[in-house]
């Protein structure tokens, strides 16, 4: 018999840096999830990622207090900011450009994000990443 799902929640946790302090601890605690168990499992799964990269995580928790987690790739904006070597996007993206990325960098980001993107091929994935870049005020050369 399948376990009864009590609910799901989404958290964005830095890779390898899950700890019981807020915001992670209280969010898990109020749903009855073992906080230390989550932190250990999350940190073990993300140790091969770049430390501190924000990882959107979907946690499905069950009535017997157990849980499963699905860790997604860091957001496209994180990769774009790193590639363009900037700290934040443009305040008025349509009017100002804050940085540039090459088509090669866009392709690398698209390949890294492919499993989480709603795209059938690498060209469609590149279009999605280029759209994200445009909305952040980053020019694609």
From TrEMBL:
Glycosyltransferase among keywords: no
GO MF annotation terms: large ribosomal subunit rRNA binding; structural constituent of ribosome
A cellular component annotation (GO) from this entry: cytosolic large ribosomal subunit
Domain Large ribosomal subunit protein uL11 N-terminal residue range list: 9-67
Gene Ontology terms describing biological process: translation
Keywords: Methylation, Ribonucleoprotein, Ribosomal protein, RNA-binding, rRNA-binding
Post-translational events: One or more lysine residues are methylated.
Key word Secreted present: no
Superkingdom, taxonomy of origin: Bacteria
Pfam families xref list: Ribosomal_L11, Ribosomal_L11_N
Residue stretches making up the Large ribosomal subunit protein uL11 C-terminal domain: 72-140
Subunit note: Part of the ribosomal stalk of the 50S ribosomal subunit. Interacts with L10 and the large rRNA to form the base of the stalk. L10 forms an elongated spine to which 2 L12 dimers bind in a sequential fashion forming a pentameric L10(L12)2(L12)2 complex. Part of the ribosomal stalk of the 50S ribosomal subunit. Interacts with L10 and the large rRNA to form the base of the stalk. L10 forms an elongated spine to which L12 dimers bind in a sequential fashion forming a multimeric L10(L12)X complex.
Similarity annotation: Belongs to the universal ribosomal protein uL11 family.
Function recorded in the entry: Forms part of the ribosomal stalk which helps the ribosome interact with GTP-bound translation factors.
Alphabetized NCBIfam families for the sequence: L11_bact
The name this protein goes by in its record: Large ribosomal subunit protein uL11
Gene name for this UniProt entry: rplK
